[in-house]
Specification:
It is globular and about 30 Å long. The chain is built from four helices and no strands. The N and C termini lie far apart (60 Å).
Length: 97
């Protein structure tokens, strides 16, 4: 079934190459955000802590979920917890502290 007069070919992008350790795929800022998600903070709280917009935090959280291959914040926090306990991950406090 054709809708309209035009047909479009969809290009599927190749997946990015990621390392075996999902946390190494995160940027330093995403690691900070993931730490605060693990601590149970909401986007607006994280935004206040880091001194950035809550929309920026929301974008970081979406990116974190995608990079970690999880569906929600709870799963991201679980991945952070497991990886942090194995690697002793430390996140420096924000510059505003």
């Amino acid at each position: 079934m054709m809708i309209g007069k035009n047909t479009y070919d969809l290009e599927i992008a190749e997946p990015k190459s990621y390392t075996a350790d999902p946390l190494l795929n995160l940027s330093p800022r995403e690691r900070e955000v993931c730490h605060w998600v693990y601590e149970g903070k909401r986007d607006r709280e994280i935004a206040m802590i880091l001194g950035i917009s809550h929309r920026t935090v929301t974008a970081h959280v979406c990116s974190i979920l995608k990079k970690l291959g999880v569906e929600n914040r709870t799963c991201a926090a679980l991945v952070w917890s497991r990886m942090a306990s194995q690697e002793e991950i430390s996140v420096p406090p924000p510059a505003s502290w």
